[in-house]
Amino acid sequence: MSDAPSTAPWPPRTAADFPRIGALPAYVFAQVNADKRERIEAGVDVIDLGMGNPDLGTPEHIVQEMVEHAADPRHHRYSASRGIYGLREAMAEHYRTRYGVELDSETEVVVTIGAKEGISHLMLAILQTGDSVIVPSPAYPIHSYSVVFSQGRVRSIPMVGDDEGYVQDDALLAAVEDACQNSWPRPRALLLSFPNNPTTLQAHPGFFERAVEVCRRNQLLLIHDFAYADFGFDEDPPSVLAVPGAKEIAVEFFSMSKSYCMAGWRVGFCVGNPAMVGALTKIKSYLDYGIFQPIQIAAAHALRAGQECVAETRETYRGRARALTEALHAAGWELPPVHATMFVWAPIPARFREMGSMEFARTLLAATGVVVSPGVGFGREGEGYVRFALIEPEARLREAAVRIGRFLRDAAE
Ligand SMILES: Cc1ncc(COP(=O)(O)O)c(C=O)c1O
Description:
Blueprint: H1 19-22, H2 29-41, E1 47-48, H3 60-70, H4 85-99, E2 109-112, H5 114-126, E3 132-137, H6 141-149, E4 153-158, H7 169-181, E5 189-192, H8 207-217, E6 221-225, E7 250-255, H9 256-259, E8 268-272, H10 274-287, H11 293-304, H12 308-330, E9 343-347, H13 350-353, H14 356-368, E10 370-371, E11 373-374, E12 385-389, H15 394-412
Parallel strand pairs: 1-10, 3-4, 3-5, 5-6, 6-7
Antiparallel strand pairs: 2-8, 7-8, 9-12, 11-12
Helix pairs in contact: 2-14, 3-11, 4-11, 5-6, 5-10, 7-8, 12-15
């Protein structure tokens, strides 16, 4: 896409005739989704482990809080685009108690319609045409698409893990330095996300100190997507904002979707650097009127009430991760242990690797009725992998592994 006036055909024939849409890379998951629909229509008992869409309902006390306020006409008006005071305060309290981070709920917290919306509009707010953003690959797709939508450029760097499930900090930060020194115009921002979707990699304690220092030295804004803040199985994942002075250059996105099983409610936050929070607040004030108020009230309640439900959800995903990896192991598919998130990031068995992750996912679905996400959908570095989302009970995950085991045995004969 360029700044030149549109030369799109008149009248437009397809969505792709609009240059911004035409410039988007193909949506890799569309093919698997189409295959899935076809299988379901053919009467197959499909086990869908494709999208990271939580199956555990929202905890009862949160639903109740919403229901109590839903009938009150005072809450049926437009709400505040940047989020009601009580919810911004609840988020500030959450950061104080959880991470020892002080946030001014007026200038350093904005409520978003989920982290996905927040990241997309933050990019639109802070990027100029042609600005580049460093995004480690593989990545959650919106990390790249949000940059493309904003007419920025993605500067992709490879992300590699070690045997313990941590990102290799030295390699990642060296790649960031290299991208800064060897590209022009110099990148404007670095977008990180740990614990990571799809790779499940975690950041070492101390990683963000180093990342903030690298960003400062290279005049990069740092954006951290913390959607899996509560899903470290062995230790609490670190917040970038706990690094002294991080607020001068960094924001963090927190999401209610996974921690409180509120994916459909659409509540997230952008917190930290007041300039970036202010830019996002401003652009949102033009674009939306805020989330339905009873939902915001319930989200504030979720953050302030006992946090046992969060621990229970984490334990459920830990149990599922173990159940699936053990069952796949028994089925002949060796996988490293999972230490975080709600996914299993699985290297494709050697004898299928040649066909590529897209073809492998389609073959697996056709043969077993199990839906997985092809790794290439998360960027070129995701090739050679598929991702299982842990959104079915353990018994169903074991059933998926049994079917896959049968497929692997048949293929070996
Ligand atoms: C890394 C990451 N960020 C953001 C999101 C979306 O969060 P939300 O539901 O708050 O938009 C997801 C959802 O899967 C995710 O994996």
